[in-house]
Amino acid sequence: MRTISLNRPERKNALNDELAWAIVQAIEAAASDDSVWVVALKGAGDAFCSGLDLSGNTPFSALTPQTALIDDLHWVGRFLLSIRKLCDKPVVGGINGAAVGAGLGLAMATDVRLVSRNAKLIAGYTRIGGSPDAGLTITLTEAMGYEKALRFMMENRTVDGAAAVDLGLAGEVVDAADFEARLEEYCQELCQWSPIALRLLKRGLVKALESSDMEQQLRYELANIRRAFASEDAREARQAFSEKRIPVFEGR
């Protein structure tokens, strides 16, 4: 078993380029290491991942590759590709706290999710004038079905751990005090099975779910969120978000 921990607790594990690419690299390193049978992914401190770090001067620059050498999907697309397609070992998400925006996308990219009773899950894109990324158009629809996924995102809903299980966002809710121990216990339970069997099982299920091309869908997501963030409404949404007021949209 290998545990990967997002380690920016002072920022609620918000994603900047350094952390996001480190997650991708750590997942892919675990995928290529035959001594690793199961991967656990969790957040340090009291949050899983609060989404894109909005503290910088250009907070949405992460959606655009920095150089021609970086894949044009950037990390917002690589989360799902790395966890589902490039890693055929079970990746268990330990959703120990808030999972927001791209942080929710990272959580939903995992194969199995244990969620703390105190966790808060929210897509949040309508609040900042964006559209879903990090694979959420794929994973939320898989988990919840079309209408529930659409309403969850359109209504900007926040759900706790128990509600997340009810909606299909996670498979098990755990009391906060017991969370670390249960995550370890569950991963060790999986390690009792043949790693060959588990890898072939995951490959088969992922293949069956790919009724559409995953990479094409991720590129479509990324094109949409870039277009959304370029709008005047999105600029107003971000300004209102920083000023803690209700945005005034004009549909342009």
Automatic annotation (TrEMBL):
Which terms does the record give in the GO molecular function aspect?
catalytic activity
Give the family this protein belongs to, as stated in its UniProt record.
Belongs to the enoyl-CoA hydratase/isomerase family.
The identity of this protein, by name, is Enoyl-CoA hydratase
